[in-house]
Amino acid sequence: MKKIQMVDLISQYKAIKPSVDKSILNILETAQFINGPVVKEFQEALKSYLGVSYVIPCANGTDALQIALMSLDLEPGDEVITPSFTYIATTEVIALLGLKPVFVDVNEETFCIDPSKIEAVITSKTKAIVPVHLYGQASNMEEIMRISNKHGIYVIEDNAQAIGSDYHMPSGDVKTGSLGNIGCTSFFPSKNLGCYGDGGAIFTNDEMLANKMGMIANHGQSKRYYHDVVGCNSRLDSIQAAVLKIKLAKLDEYINARRKVASYYDDFLAQFDEMKDDKRIITPVRSNKSRHVFHQYTIRLIGIDRDALHKYLADKGIPSMIYYPVPAHRQKMFSKFGSEHTDLPVTDMLTNQVLSLPIHTEMEQEQLDYISSNIADFIKNNY
Q: Can you tell me the distance from the alpha carbon of 59 to that of 240, in angstroms, rounded to the nearest whole number?
């Protein structure tokens, strides 16, 4: 049996090797490393795929979030509402820009920001909401947009884990990342759409915001050597764009492969949904509002020792991950905001329950059978 990994980028590369090698070699031979034509080609392809008017490629997903916030002309001390149950990049850029993160709890079924908790923390200083489409599951964007429109608040979607997800609006399906004022994504290699280094992108349907974010990402330039706003240097290089253009064409195929693995886990783990003594394994919910694209397959362990299972699987050569063991509001970096005193019971509960199992586009049945049999053995021997 092939070694089990959380994500198997080598096998994925081998499947597209001829196209990738040809594209990278062409860049090496033409030496168009920065802002080469392939960057524009990928930009146009992503714009078409997402159904948005503007795409601004950038150097990474964290830059995407920072540039998005910079474009809104916020003042130091302005407040940005965001979940604490997320990767730190979502929240660190808020503090980096002198803004105040206001943490709210998440829904225990979807793991995404709970819209019912948002209005209670809105103040005169609230300027933006950053919902995170966690693990590949979309936030409740209809309700979030209703709140934002009511209060005149910007919405920046952190779409790094859910690119390719369809959100079911009454008027038809739209891609996550295109519902708010701005959407952001990361092309970190392990993402559903990942490059072979760092990369990111910002998307919007607002021409004014698009122009400003384009300038910010390029040293604040409106044209070369003319700098209208304070910016940064955040570019997607040509090699990464070439890889992404090839993989974008296969993104829906990759998503379907992940969903197939998720369905296998769903079926296998159903037997542990109701065990004796209130012990349960809860599988990821599939919201009727959107298509889960399973960047991660994250279970909840109720009355079962999560850390013991994590170690047991590791001893059997099966990787698993805890995303995330320490939520943002309990991180030392945010102590100046007094965030450790924020009451987020669902977030604190989930940090002790969640465990992500291996899921990627190249998983084989033998690997899935091995993973499931070892989970079953652990439960049988301990509960």
A: 10
- What pLDDT, on a 0 to 100 scale, did the predictor assign at position 83? 98
Other CB atoms within 10 Å distance of the CB of residue 353? 17
Beta-carbon contacts of residue 111 (< 8 Å; ≥ 6 apart): 85, 134, 135, 137, 298, 350, 354
DSSP 178: S
- CA-CA-CA-CA torsion for 31, 37, 38, 39, nearest 10 degrees? 100
Using CA atoms, how far residue 24 sits from 39, 132, 240, 255, in Å, is: 12, 33, 9, 25
CA gap 244, 352 in Å, rounded: 35
Two tokens, residue 309: 């299972």
* Encoded tokens for 16: 């597209």
Helix (H) or strand (E) holding 150: helix 141-151
DSSP symbols for 10-62:
HHHHHHHHHHHHHHHHHHHHHT--SS-HHHHHHHHHHHHHHT-SEEEEES-HH
DSSP-derived secondary structure letter, 336 = G
Partnered with residue 157 across adjacent β-strands are: 183
∠ CA 283-289-295, nearest 5°, is 50
Give the percent of the chain with pLDDT over 70.
100
Question: Domains along the chain?
Answer: 9-248 (3.40.640.10), 251-382 (3.90.1150.10)
pLDDT value for 275: 82
Q: How far is Cα 63 from Cα 22, in angstroms, rounded to an integer?
A: 29
pTM beyond 0.85: the answer is: yes
Cα distance between residue 251 and residue 246, in whole Å: 9
Is the pLDDT score of 102 beyond 90?
yes
Going by pLDDT thresholds of 50, 70 and 90, the confidence category of residue 272 is very high
Question: What tens digit of pLDDT does each residue of 34-63 get?
Answer: 999 999 999 999 999 999 999 999 999 999
Query: Which of 282, 289, 293 is closest to 260 using CA atoms?
Result: 293
Q: Single out the residue of 137, 139, 136, 128 nearest to residue 105, CA to CA.
A: 139
Say how many residues make up the chain.
Answer: 383
